[in-house]
């Protein structure tokens, strides 16, 4: 996170997101797959060198390499001989992060490279990520309980939950009672974040406010469907050699 100044001199807290380039790995259609989606891949994953075994998850496996390029195999040769058309491949490097977006295929094609300029006309976005893991936490930290009183008679239980049961009816702990337990490390969505700046040259998005996850974590960015959307469009910084544009 950082902060920038707008034209009026106001400080705006923003989160900088490296949002590209992304490659279209697959285009799912209703006729072939039963649903419509576009599969994107981000950040190249290194391949093993010739003669090197895949000793760690850091290197791309053969299945991951075959997902983006046609590899010669016995099964592939048999399918070709039988007249089965192979699925279109992106012909790019294996990707570290692969996710699908349930959108209409439209003009997307396999192998297409997407940059942040697709957000130039978007006013606000939803950011989906994995929240920071905090391990096992107490009820005060996990659920914002106020705890016990700090008065006479309360001994060494100031941060305890307190009574969790019921009276004779129903004479049990109600299912779903908020208590201590695992906190964080869960899928989290922050909606309707204003898009402040789109840096096309460096593939950066600056969104107003905080997003889930630690620094360097992976997130999904999509146009928001929450109304009302901000009427003001984001500032756009074009690539080198192009004139800067600013839309009000």
Model description:
It is a single chain. The protein is mainly beta and 248 residues long. It has three domains: 101 residues, Elongation Factor Tu (Ef-tu), domain 3, CATH 2.40.30; 94 residues, Double Stranded RNA Binding Domain; 50 residues, no CATH class. Helix content is 10%, strand content 29%. The protein contains four helices and 13 strands. Strands 1, 2, 7, 10, 11, 12 and 13 form a seven-stranded mixed β-sheet that branches. A hairpin with a 5-residue loop joins strand 1 and strand 2. The longest helix has 8 residues. The protein is extended and about 85 Å long. The two termini are 25 Å apart.
Describe the biggest sheet? 7 strands, mixed
- As for the number of domains, it is 3
Would you tell me which CATH topology of the largest domain applies?
Elongation Factor Tu (Ef-tu), domain 3
User: Roughly how many Å apart are the termini?
Assistant: 25 Å
The H/E string reads: EEEHEHHEEEEHEEEEE
Q: Looking at the structure, what is the overall shape?
A: extended
Helical fraction equals: under 10%
The first-level CATH class of the largest domain is given as Mainly Beta
CATH architecture of the largest domain: Beta Barrel
Please count the beta strands (DSSP E, at least 2 residues each). Answer: 13
- What is the CATH homologous superfamily assignment of the largest domain? Translation factors
Structural class: mainly beta
Instruction: Give unreliable regions as ranges.
Output: 244-248
Q: Strand percentage, roughly?
A: 25-35%
The value of Rg in angstroms is: 25 Å
In round numbers, the mean pLDDT is 87
Number of helical stretches of at least 4 residues: 4
């Amino acid at each position: 996170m950082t902060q920038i100044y707008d034209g009026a001199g106001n400080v705006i807290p923003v989160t900088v997101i490296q949002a590209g380039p992304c490659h279209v790995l697959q285009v799912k259609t209703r006729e072939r797959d039963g649903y419509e989606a576009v599969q994107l891949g981000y950040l190249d994953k290194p391949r093993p060198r010739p003669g090197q075994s895949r000793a760690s998850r850091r290197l791309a496996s053969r299945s991951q390499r075959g997902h983006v390029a046609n590899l010669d195999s016995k099964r592939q040769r048999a399918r070709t001989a039988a007249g089965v058309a192979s699925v279109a491949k992106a012909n790019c490097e294996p990707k570290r992060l692969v996710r699908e977006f349930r959108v209409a295929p439209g003009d997307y094609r396999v192998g297409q490279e997407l940059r942040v300029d697709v957000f130039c006309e978007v006013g606000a976005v939803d950011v989906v990520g994995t929240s920071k893991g905090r391990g096992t936490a107490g009820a005060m930290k996990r659920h914002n309980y106020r705890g016990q009183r700090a008065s006479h008679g309360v001994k060494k239980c100031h941060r305890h939950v307190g009574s969790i049961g019921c009276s004779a009816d129903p004479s049990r702990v109600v299912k779903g009672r908020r208590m201590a337990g695992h906190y964080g490390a869960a899928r989290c969505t922050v909606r309707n974040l204003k898009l402040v700046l789109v840096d096309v040259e460096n593939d950066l998005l600056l969104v107003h406010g905080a997003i889930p996850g630690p620094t360097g974590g992976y997130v999904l960015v999509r146009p928001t469907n929450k109304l009302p959307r901000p009427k003001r469009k984001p500032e756009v910084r074009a690539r080198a050699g192009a004139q800067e544009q600013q839309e009000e």
